[in-house]
Amino acid sequence: MWFRIIANYPVAFYDRYMVWYLYDAENRAMNRTRLLKYWLPYFVEKYKDPLFKHNKAFYRWVMRWAGVRIKQIYFNDPSQHEDAKVAARKLDYTQLPFKYRFELLTPFWLGRIVYRFLK
């Protein structure tokens, strides 16, 4: 919801806390990790819609945010490597820096060397 608001209406940043959230034993379900294949490809596909593309700064931010997440999983989690490849195919590489394009579009072994070197 907030992304749709940001993409379609003027917003302002307010740097004060407006709410606090208490994490305790009752909220342990929040600690589970969601597998990449269940959310990130759909997230990227959703924000490629023309409704969001008109806001160029927001669209670039979404693609870069997704690129960072995909890159981390692609090179660090072998169990989700194939899912990361699927999600990476959905990115709009015109919105990503050259190093992301190089790391994700070259053969895995070369991208991993560059990823480790730049890390």
Features:
119 residues, mainly alpha, 7 helices, globular
Question: Which helices and strands appear, and what pairs or packs with what?
Answer:
Blueprint: H1 2-8, H2 40-46, H3 50-53, H4 56-76, H5 81-89, H6 98-105, H7 108-118
Strand content: under 5%
Number of domains as seen in the coordinates: 1
Radius of gyration: 17 Å
Largest sheet: none
> What's the overall average pLDDT, rounded?
80
Number of strands: 0
Residues in helices, as a percent range: 55-70%
Distance between the termini: 33 Å
Series of secondary-structure elements, N-terminal to C-terminal: HHHHHHH
Overall spatial form: globular
Number of helices: 7
Poorly predicted spans: none
Helix/strand-derived category reads: mainly alpha
Task: Give an overview of the whole structure.
- This protein has 119 residues and is an all-alpha fold.
- The protein has helices at 2-8, 40-46, 50-53, 56-76, 81-89, 98-105, 108-118.
- Helices cover 56% and strands 0% of the residues.
- It contains 7 helices and no strands.
- The chain is globular, with a radius of gyration of 17 Å.
- Helix 4 (56-76) runs antiparallel to helix 5 (81-89) and helix 6 runs antiparallel to helix 7.
- The model has no long low-confidence stretch (mean pLDDT 80).
- It has one domain.
